[in-house]
Amino acid sequence: MLCELAGRRASGTFAAMRRLLMALLVAIPVVVTLASGAGSPVVHALPPGFSDVAVASVARPTAVEHLPNGRTAVLEQSTGRVRLIDTNTGQLLPGFALDLAVCGSGERGLLGFAPDPDFSATGRVYVFYVASFGGSCRTRVSAFRMVGDSISPSSEQVLIQIMNRRSNHNGGDVEIGNDGFLYVSVGDDGADPRGDSGSAGANDAAQDLGVLHGKILRLDRMTGFPAAGNPYLGHPDGVDCRGNYLVLAPQGSVCREIFAHGLRNPYRFAFDPNTSATRFFINDVGQSGVDQREEVNEGAIGANYGWNTCEGPCAVPGLTNPIVSYDNTRGRFITAGAFVPDGVWPSEYDGGYLFADGGSDRIWLRRADGSVDFTTPFITGRSGIADMAFVLELGGWALYYTQVFSGQVRKITFSTSPSGPAGPLAYERLPTATRPFDSRTTAPPARIRGGHTRLIPLGPEAVGADAALVNITFASPSAATFAAVWEPRTTRPATSNLNAPALKDVANASIVPVDAQGRIILHTQATSDVIVDLAGVFVAAPGPTAAGRFQPAQTKRVVDSRQAAGPGNEHTRSGPVVNVPISSRAGVPPAGVDAVVLVVAGIGRSIPVQGWLTAYAGGTSRPPSSNLNVNGDGDVRTNLVVVPLGADGSVDVYLSDVPDLIVEVIGWFTDDTVGASGSGRFQLINPTREVDSRNNIGFGPLEHLELQPFNPASAPDGAAAVAQNLTFAPTGGWGFVGALAEPSAPLITNLNGSRAGQTRAALAITPLSGSGSETFRAESPITFRPHHFLVDIFGYFE
Q: What is the mean pLDDT of residues 764-777?
């Protein structure tokens, strides 16, 4: 495709002149002057708040791809090498991750790269390249295994091989859809590989269903076999064509691997990360001449996009028209494309798709409504753009792009600010907890991909609020993972909210700032189902207020269902429901209480069975939400729960495959019957990591029976309590930690570990002493190693 800068393939002397020009262009970096008149090349000013800087220089970078492991892969077209950039530092790593023997002439070479959805567990990656075999060339898509910063050549699993006779129109992209299938774009080879039509506009390969050229293919990503549901899978003349790199299928055959056809050179395509659907756009390069059109097509099963019958919009029955097209007065050949992650850049970019023209050096934005302002490109003056991808850096998303001729990898970032103080806030609980997001029940159901983010609306109850109390659950992540949650269009915090091992269900509560539409951004490191439950919101309370103020209790354990009910352990059990009286216990008053703040621990069964529990107002219907997930083998999990009281002052806890529980009272939120005051209002801060014992920040690892005093710097003198996320990172063995206002306070359990090596997190609202400090108490056998420990502060109560 990149040869298109010298002009589309023609014939005769004119074609020879174009090939000569191409040879010169490959040797000399090209910059197109877009302004009228003579002078220096012009770079269009980026929109306000954006910046464009160089990241690295490599040899002819064709593709760039974000990996969930903190690396960014960059492909060198002609050398066949995969290079890695440390995403956290922005530094190009020395050496290479993979070195392949490629045919590197013209548009051939190393062209496409994608990580598997389960990359964090398997290290599996997919590579599109034109392989060299003793002077012959063949298009190949293979899977490899990546370990650390190395991709083993010996791990290659060839999934598909395709005849490659010409050095142009290779296509070159490979991606994974939310349906779990592997998608591959293949060009029409420049001239008919069957040899019965011609080249350029006479080449009918894209309409020949017996060849894989000029197509989008869809494969089983583990085997390379045609994907289930492909349009020609059951065709009476259907054949598998994935090995036809020497001899093509007979005329009249239909390749089962085909997903869509009628494409000239679909060099790049991109999937939308903002939806659970398998939605993607295809950038197809047009033919030269006055009728030439560059196209963006929407991926659709069984679609025929028209080449070589026509290009651009055409009124031919049975053909699928592009969603964007433009002629050679605007650009010369379309290349890279990327969907903008929602909630990251200014709101006008939500739902947007960026696409580049490698010959006119421009990037345009297709807005969510489908419009494109061709007169105002997003950026101009960057020559030979070949690929682009959004990369999640420490502070947020950046758009990386490659310039194949100059050898530069560059990035465009938008300047954001941390989520700042919102002023005093009061808590408003929902009448009943809701479940605004569940990836298992979206239409269609689809797990959130590792390394991606999702903009999640929390529902009408969160609109206009400043923060939300949510419960976030990982359901069977593919690998050990963590989640970070933050306010849209703000800087990604250097903190986390939830940690989970592979294939387990784990939940944690979080207090998260929301935008004006009541939305949050969630990032997961590994692919997982994600569930978000909403318990309540925090709203502005600029003056003294009655309702929604936190009041510390006489912190106390009120129930341990493993023990017989009696004084100090009052509870009743009816089937899976445990009723716990709360009113007038642990200092909770009999009136004036809107919701109580509890720490609930679930004790797992002795066999490997996962369970869950839900706490709700006593005597009411169970809401469609959960608070805690417990794994089997005697596992113990804790979580913070804010729950209203029933008419009798009690809480019901529904247990599903959880035999027992412990309930501890931390405090309560006032209702509107009490006197107005400023005490107990909540103040958000930018999430801040104040303790990391792995680096001796704050204090070191927590020892057996240690009492560790701590004064949160984020909470001012006089603060009543802090909201903090506590994390074992990892445990030294069995044990737990309690966060206490005073060393002499009754011991509670905020965070549990059942064995060594576990990474676990739990939200805590912890009352502070009169001097503004707290004390962490560690409990573990003396024979175990110390626990590494993190403390992330989210806010404080006045």
A: 96
- Average model confidence (pLDDT) for the chain? 93
Q: Is 757 in contact with 731 (CB distance < 8 Å)?
A: yes
- C-alpha count within 13 angstroms, C-beta hemisphere, residue 207: 15
- Nearest C-alpha neighbor of 725 from the set 694, 675, 763, 695: 763
ω before 230 within 30° of 0 (cis)? no
SS3 content of the chain, % helix, strand, coil (to 5): 5, 45, 50
**Integer Cα distance of 789 and 761 in angstroms:** 10
Comparing CA positions, the residue from 565, 402, 490 lying closest to residue 75 is 402
Q: How far is CA 46 from the centre of its chain?
A: 26
Place of tokens 């894989």: 212
Which tokens go with 499?
């940690």
Residue 557 to residues 276, 506, 778, Cα–Cα distance (Å): 42, 23, 17
Burial-class residue 789 by CB neighbours within 10 Å (0-12, 13-18, 19+): buried
Question: DSSP string covering 196-208, please?
Answer: SS-BGGG--GGG-
- Please state, in angstroms and rounded to a whole number, the distance separating the CA atoms of residues 599 and 558: 10
pLDDT (tens digit per residue) in 69-100: 999 999 999 999 999 999 999 999 999 999 99
d(CA 373, CA 366): 8
> Is the full-model pTM beyond 0.85?
yes
Q: With beta carbons less than 8 A apart as the criterion, state whether 62 and 45 touch.
A: no
Which residues on adjacent β-strands are paired with residue 778? Answer: 737
Q: Where are the beta strands (DSSP E) in 210-357?
A: 215-219, 238-239, 254-255, 258-261, 268-271, 280-284, 294-298, 324-326, 334-339, 353-357
Q: Band of the pLDDT at 157, cuts 50, 70, 90?
A: very high
Cβ-contact 53, 411 below 8 angstroms: yes
- Phi, psi of 703, rounded to the nearest 5 degrees: -90, 170
Task: Please give the C-alpha separations between residue 182 and each of 113, 142, 226, 355, in angstroms, as whole numbers.
Answer: 11, 11, 10, 22
User: What is d(CA 670, CA 708) in angstroms, rounded to the nearest whole number?
Assistant: 31
Determine the distance from the C-alpha atom of residue 432 to the mean position of all C-alpha atoms in its chain, rounded to a whole number: 29
Strands (E) located in 267-406: 268-271, 280-284, 294-298, 324-326, 334-339, 353-357, 362-366, 379-380, 385-392, 397-403
Write the CB contacts of 651 (distance below 8 Å, at least 6 apart in sequence).
Answer: 579, 580, 582, 596, 598, 615, 616, 617, 618, 643, 645, 663
Which single residue is written with the structure tokens 């412990």? 662
Tokens read off for 290: 């006055």
Quick: pLDDT tens for 222-234.
999 999 999 999 9
Distance CA 388, CA 410 (A): 9
Instruction: Measure the CA–CA gap between 555 and 479, rounded to whole angstroms.
Output: 36
Averaged over 645-671, what is the pLDDT?
Answer: 97
Cβ burial of 99 (10 Å; 0-12, 13-18, 19+) is middle
CA–CA gap between residue 776 and residue 766 (Å, rounded): 10
User: CB within 8 A of 484, min separation 6: which ones?
Assistant: 492, 493, 495, 496, 497, 522, 523
Residue 290: which residues within 8 A CB-CB, separation 6 or more? none
